[in-house]
Description:
mainly beta, five-stranded antiparallel sheet, 1 helix, 14% helix
Amino acid sequence: MRKLIEIEAYTVEKIKDPFGILAGERYEFKLEIDVAEDDELYVEGGLFIRAIYRVDGDAGRLVKYELYKRINDAFYDFELEDEEERMLESFCGAHFTESQE
């Protein structure tokens, strides 16, 4: 079993929807993660996650996420485990209010 990812640093920005087409508000997170060298997710140079979190009223949820290699911003085709996705969603839910509008 893999260890859970560890978030080292992050930024969050509210995504602007000038036409009001989408319901709720969306926030984009960029999370630098630490992955153990013996983990199957590990890549040299490290990874970051780009995540979109949606808030509509009192409800929030993770819409999507993608992993990228830090060294060259290249897409890394790998999925997080369910427990890691829940942790990511919980983290985003706890931090979206820190966005710079």
